[in-house]
Write a structure and sequence with these properties.
The complex is a heterodimer. Chain A is mainly alpha-helical. Chain A has 2 domains: 9-73, no CATH class; 75-296, MetI-like fold, CATH 1.10.3720. Chain A is 67% helix and 0% strand. In chain A, helix 3 crosses helix 14, helix 4 (80-111) packs antiparallel against helix 10 and helix 10 packs antiparallel against helix 14 (265-296). Chain B folds into 2 domains: 2-47, no CATH class; 77-308, MetI-like (MetI-like fold), CATH 1.10.3720. Chain B is mainly α. Chain B is built from 17 helices and no strands. The mean pLDDT of chain B is 90. In chain B, helix 16 (262-272) packs antiparallel against helix 17 (276-304). Chain B has helices spanning 2-6, 11-17, 19-42, 55-58, 67-74, 76-95, 98-109, 113-124, 131-141, 148-155, 170-195, 199-207, 212-235, 244-250, 256-259, 262-272, 276-304. The chains are: A mainly alpha, B mainly alpha. Chains A and B meet through helix 1, helix 4, helix 5, helix 6 and helix 9 of A and helix 2, helix 3, helix 7, helix 8 and helix 9 of B.
Chain lengths: 302, 311
């Protein structure tokens, strides 16, 4: 990526007719794909600002129908269930991300310590969980037997960290020169201090990757909320979305439809989708910068 | 540090010296032992007639021990879910597999950095959106009541199609929505491989009169082939995971016959009907096959290119 790349069609040799046709066809395909990637989101956005009358129009929505209708947003933001779900989603995302990144870094830091006795054995024990697990039912029964069902922690603890993330963190931390740690040890620093004062400041790229993945994961998670915390006071946004969009839960619908004779549910659904996508779209530039690194950071070697 | 090398410390001494490291590791190990190895212990209910009141230990063993597995293979619904899983996985692993490679090559061949960047940016976006939301967007897009796709079909004189309720179209829906969500993100690794190719090769070939297809066929493809082979082999490990999240948010009663996969079957039987032992057995069957496939394909990768193996 660092190398300055020339366009292949424009190197030394002058473009031939064949090149021009190739480029034209390629650009055509890409413009088509561009539309296919963007239009579903654009259509949903337009729909969320539509009145119920224009929502069922038999034409393609391309430009916003003016004036914009904010009714759908007003409806959902005055719904207590929606506000509870939004609050719970933000809460689990923030707390979950902080705890998950901290745990993963601790794991990566210790496993990066080459002189640690039983390091290979511990690493193997952790890595095995990447390839085998008990499955849905035993996990559910475990969470239930720990009396976590119905608790906020059921959304945090079962997915606190993962073998994959710990290995990625370890591989990154192993690139920190050992001399820095030795110098700190001579100064009398204990491992915890070394981790927080030396490793954490040097690991910003990996922390960014881990935090972004974890945040997206928590924001999008619905399955754990469905099986562990189905109560309405513990509703999270993704599960509420599933209820509205997929399960077409009539009770939720009725709650959202209160006094909205003119408002069809489609526009309300679209508005809820927009609210769920906006935080990801806002984080997106940051994400793009870091996530490719995440893919390329180190092979997973035991 | 140098002293250590001349006289390696006794194990006990070394462990004591690292006690604070173990302390930091403690919460991590607690997590893995409780939440990863705990369920692996709990999976013994697959061999028991589990009764929640008696608990895992006191519930009686099955007679014969493989009873739940026999039951599964006698069940039409399980066989159906196995067949659907294999068909959908086949579509995803073999039919969808070349598409991100093609996409990466086409992006690389695009003239103009700006356009390259923007198509990449928009193509990654669906990857970060959950299947719940994508399902909602698709339902709106494919709706028979004002959905863009059906509007388009009707504009050209066709009849509206209820994509979500059509048994014959469901796998197509799964396939295309999967490609739409993942093609951009999956192409990243191939784009990285392509950007590592020496540009002089292309220049030399062009001077010799090669056209664009020849450049792609003789330079780009052979250069990224090792990455391609490894990605393909590693994806084989997931052959029994056809994508719970996606199917669960797209399917409905009317498409069960072509859409129900092992994971959704386990969920329904286990969580909704609470046949814990039976569904744990089905899940265990799936996970063991998965483990064997991952280990097997990894051994295979190791033979081809030991640097690319997972372990």
């Amino acid at each position: 990526m660092k190398k300055t790349k020339k366009n292949r069609g424009a190197t030394l040799v002058i473009k031939s007719t064949g090149d021009r046709i190739f480029d034209a066809v390629n650009i055509f395909i890409m413009v088509l794909l561009f539309i296919i990637f963007v239009y579903p989101f654009w259509d949903t956005l337009l729909l969320s600002f539509s009145s119920s009358a224009s929502a069922t129009k038999r034409t393609l929505r391309i430009l916003p129908d003016l004036p914009l209708v904010f009714e759908s947003y007003r409806k959902i933001f005055t719904q207590s269930l929606f506000l509870t779900a939004l609050k719970n989603s933000v809460r689990r995302t923030v707390i979950g991300t902080v705890l998950s990144v901290a745990t993963t870094l601790c794991g990566g830091f210790v496993l990066a310590k080459r002189s640690l006795p039983f390091r290979r054995g511990i690493t193997a024990l952790i890595m095995f969980t990447m390839f085998f697990g008990g499955g849905l039912i035993p996990t559910y029964l475990l969470v239930k037997s720990l009396h976590l069902t119905g608790s906020f922690w059921a959304l945090i603890l079962p997915g606190l960290t993962s073998a994959w993330n710990i290995i990625i963190a370890r591989n990154f931390l192993m690139t920190v020169p050992a001399s820095m740690e030795e110098a700190a040890i001579i100064d009398g620093a204990d491992p915890f201090r070394i981790l927080t004062r030396i490793y954490v400041p040097l690991s910003k790229p990996i922390i960014a990757v881990l935090a972004l993945w974890s945040a997206i994961g928590h924001w999008n998670a619905w399955f754990d909320a469905m099986i562990y915390t189905p109560g309405s006071d513990q509703m999270v946004l993704s599960y509420l979305l599933r209820k509205i969009l997929v399960e077409t839960d009539t009770k939720v619908f009725d709650a959202l439809k209160q006094n909205t004779a003119a408002m069809t549910p489609t526009t309300v659904k679209a508005a809820t989708i927009v609210v769920a996508v906006v935080p990801i779209a806002l984080l997106y530039p940051l994400f793009q910068k870091h996530f490719i690194k995440g893919i390329n950071i180190g092979a997973v070697k035991g | 540090m140098k002293k250590k090398k001349s006289a390696p410390p006794r194990l006990g001494v070394s462990i004591w010296k690292h006690r604070q490291y173990y302390l930091i590791l403690l919460p991590v190990m607690a997590y893995f032992i409780i939440f990863c190895y705990g369920p692996m212990y709990g999976v013994i209910i697959a061999f028991k007639d589990f009764n929640p009141l008696q608990g895992i230990l006191k519930s009686p063993w099955c007679d014969p021990w493989y009873k739940n597995f026999t039951l599964a293979f006698q069940s039409d619904l399980f066989i159906r879910s196995l067949r659907n899983t294999l068909i959908i996985s086949f579509l995803k692993i073999f039919v969808a597999f070349p598409l991100p490679i093609l996409f990466a090559i086409l992006i690389d061949e695009l003239p103009g950095r700006r356009f390259k960047k923007s198509i990449q940016t928009v193509s990654y976006l669906p990857y970060f959106i959950s299947w719940v939301v994508l399902s909602g967007i698709l339902r709106n897009l494919l709706s028979t009541n004002g959905g863009a796709v059906n509007n388009l079909i009707q504009m050209f004189g066709g009849h509206a199609i209820n994509f979500f309720a059509s048994k014959t179209r469901f796998r197509g829906l799964v396939f295309f929505s999967y490609v739409w969500k993942t093609i951009g993100y999956s192409s990243v690794i191939y784009l990285a491989a392509i950007s590592g190719i020496d540009q002089e090769q292309y220049e030399a070939a062009r001077i010799d009169g090669a056209n664009r297809f020849q450049l792609i066929g003789h330079i780009t493809l052979p250069s990224i082939m090792p990455v391609v082979v490894i990605m393909l082999i590693l994806s084989l490990g997931g052959v029994l995971s056809a994508g719970f999240d996606q199917i669960f948010n797209l399917y409905s009663d009317s498409v069960m016959e072509t859409g129900d996969i092992i994971d959704t079957y386990v969920y329904r039987v286990g969580m909704l009907k609470q046949q814990y032992s039976y569904s744990a057995a089905v899940g265990l069957f799936k996970n063991i096959i998965g483990l064997v496939l991952v280990v097997g394909s990894n051994l295979f990768v190791k033979k081809i290119d030991s640097d690319s193996a997972l372990f």
